[in-house]
Amino acid sequence: PAAIAQKAKAQVLHYPTVTFLQGIAIDGKKKDNGFTITVKSGEEFNGRKLLFATGVRDLFPAIKGFAECWGISVVHCPYCHGYEFREAKTGIMANGERAFHLASLVRNLTDKISFLTTGTPQFSLEQLSKLKNRNIGIIETEVAEIIHDNGQVKQVIFKDGSQVPFEAVYAAIPFEQHSDIPEALGCELTEQGYLKVDMLQKTAVAGVFACGDNTSMMRSVAAAVAGGNLAGAAINREITEEDF
Question: What is d(CA 103, CA 187) in angstroms, rounded to the nearest whole number?
């Protein structure tokens, strides 16, 4: 993704109307003629429309080795990473409905699956029966550490001292919006915590748009680029119609 972003930046800088500004946005305000964004240095930038492509921040559990493996062999999505870990011995660090849903997807890629529920399993009797019939084990003991080699999972160590070898771990972890400015402006969130947008990437606040990971659980470069493309067209349309 970083290489793609760098190449895209170099290409759009050929346009004289495009400028990249470095700064951490800390505040946003609605004005009569648009919006003002204030950055950490104190500088202010004004615009008629706002597009938030600010992403989300994953909240890691306090498990040694987890952060080092995140996005490498501790992953969140079988659609994004599953093919690389087909037939691998896999752990699913989740519980309840989210875990059961993940298992149905991961089972299509490997039959070597164990749940790491960190406590009492929260499955219905019907779900437990289905998991048993598919030889999906459940480990209730809390995870203490992930042993890895440059981000590649080797062993999961539990708080009772036991350890189990794994090659991949799916983890359903919480996240938060990377920027709190959209909410401060009045943008609404979905039940899952994403910025609520319509089909044109418009938020609940007139003139404010959002795209990318902050609006969708489908975290991929392709989806983010598609959302940005749609938002850009919608913003351009609004401005040109207002000026006509």
Answer: 34
The per-residue pLDDT for range 209-230, each reduced to its tens digit, is: 999 999 999 888 889 999 999 9
Q: Give the domain extent around 15.
A: 1-57+183-239
Amino acid in position 166: F
pLDDT tens digits, 82-125: 999 999 999 999 999 999 999 999 999 999 999 999 999 999 99
Same domain for 217 and 187: yes
97 and 196 co-located in one domain: no
What is the Cα–Cα distance from 120 to 128, expressed in whole angstroms? 12
Distance of alpha carbon 54 from alpha carbon 64, whole angstroms: 28
Q: pTM of this prediction? A: 0.87
Chain Cα centroid distance, residue 175: 7
Contacts of 146 (CB under 8 A, 6+ apart): 63, 64, 65, 66, 68, 69, 74, 153, 155, 156, 157, 169
All residues at 6 or more sequence positions from 153 whose CB lies less than 8 Å from its CB, including other chains: 69, 73, 74, 146, 147, 166, 167, 168, 169
